Amino acid sequence: MTTAWFDRIAARLAEPGIQGPLSAAWSLANQTVYWALAAAGGNDGDTLAAYGTHNHAIELRGFLPEPDDGDDPETDLTFADGRRLAEFLEQAERRLAAAAGTTMVPDEALTALVAVRLLGHTAAAVRTTLRPAQTAR
Predict the structure, then answer these.
(1) Secondary element (H or E) of residue 137
(2) What does the CA dihedral 33, 75, 30, 34 come to, rounded to 10 degrees?
(3) Under 8 Å CB-to-CB from 120, ≥6 apart: which residues?
(4) What is the per-residue burial (b if ≥16 Cβ within 10 Å, else e) of 58-97?
(5) 129, 36 Cβ separation under 8 angstroms
(6) Residue 13 above 90 pLDDT?
(7) pTM as predicted
């Protein structure tokens, strides 16, 4: 189930134009919200860092348009693999940066450019949350 979800996100990030990557970024932000809550409640990781990640993801999700394609955001799905989530956030950051440079719609380009910055901050926050768990081993 997790792999299928990531496959769908990867497909959206690879779509031409900007709507697919924007939709993928919203889904990633939505998942990051739930991942951070799980990290904050677990024994691994830094609780304060996890809440910081949660706040970054809320900000990112609130900025992006919610997907209107009827796709289930799978809010009940939580990932133990924070590294993979961070990688996808970074992939979305790169894809949106490229799409923002080619779009003809100024509002979409501006949305994408702001989202690029927020994706970068969110990916960094996920990685910061992971660090204490890595050093505890």
Answers:
(1) none
(2) 10
(3) 90, 93
(4) bebbeebeebeeeeebbeeeebeebeebbebbbbbbebbb
(5) yes
(6) yes
(7) 0.84
